[in-house]
Structures are given as C-alpha cells and as structure tokens.
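Batch 3, record 17
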Amino acid sequence: GAGVSQSPSNKVTEKGKDVELRCDPISGHTALYWYRQSLGQGLEFLIYFQGNSAPDKSGLPSDRFSAERTGGSVSTLTIQRTQQEDSAVYLCASSQAGSSTDTQYFGPGTRLTVL
Amino acid sequence: GDSVTQMEGPVTLSEEAFLTINCTYTATGYPSLFWYVQYPGEGLQLLLKATKADDKGSNKGFEATYRKETTSFHLEKGSVQVSDSAVYFCALSDRGGNQFYFGTGTSLTVIP
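Prediction for the assembled complex:
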C-alpha cells in the first residue's frame, strides 16, 4: 500500500516568511511524528500525535513552530518567521499504534532552505 | 534523559569485510532499540529491532543484540556488500512510545 508522503519535497524561502509542510501518514496509523534532520546531526524529535490525545510538543524548538493533525490523518507543520537556522530536512513518520515497540515508517522528507 | 551515542563515521570497507557499528544508550526505563538505514536517495527504513534485553534483531545479514549490562546495541554484519553502502542510525524509544531518540548516523561506504 501507499507509504508516508510529504510535500513539498523541496522548499526555498526567504528569512521571515512562514512555511507549511504537509505529511500524509499511512492509512490507519494512529501515531504521527515530526523530526528535523540538520546537516551532520541526528534526527531531532519535534512533535508526536497519538489518536485524539493532546500532542506531545516537547521537542518544538521555539514558539515559531506549530503543528496540527486534522481528523487523525494529515498533519501540517508550520514554521513562522523562518530563520536561517531552520534550514534542514523535515521528516514525518507514522506508526500503527505509537507503542515503544512499533516500527516507524518514514516519509521522504521536505528539504527546507531559508535564504 | 534518554540518549543514543553511535560510532562516528564515515566508515569505508572493502567488499566482504566484517562490519561493526557501535551504539550505546542511556535510558531510565526499558527501551526498545532499533537500527534504521537510509540508502542513497531513499527515506529512512527500519533495518532491525529488539524490544527487550538479550533479544537479537536480524535482517539482511545484519544482527544486533540488546545488551542491558553494557547498555549497547552494536550492529554487525559478517560480509558487507557494495549495496550496503548507506547511513545507519541507532535509535531507542521510551516505554510510552512518545519519543524516539536517534544517534547522529554512521555513513558506510563499501568499495568493490
């Protein structure tokens, strides 16, 4: 079946602009994660959604970052007033039930470049 | 807090050489441990996992054993191939499944 998809695949923006990144998880997966991968760094956890529960936002680096998940499916990560240090690959992953043993399925990522 | 430390790369090996990529972790509870792989031009995908102490995960000739006494989950393969060239990430998840902690990745290049 279809995997996790993300759009756009690449985004170039100017400093100070807002951007929206989209993630379509695997159908039926209740858990959704956002990560950031900067050059030479590991994956940095940003936010976690599980079903209808309140999201775990503990990884968001600043209040310029926010995310929503509508209808328990599609998620949008919004970065307001982008800064050059926001440049990274943003990865989305979903898992079936969000337990610690579940496999995460990753999307191809969105490469964000802030000029 | 929980964390993962993995061997820094890049690693370059000749085909059929033995591979070890070290991974150690710090966790307050009893995490699950994972190795993910990112092949050139592709997304991250699960390579193998182990969910409790002494479990061995294996896939595609790769193995890793969950060692609680040494807090390690080293990745091994007896004979690497050119097609194994990729970036390998060690990861752990806490009991609640809320957060996953990834290492910085180890780039492997296998030359013929």
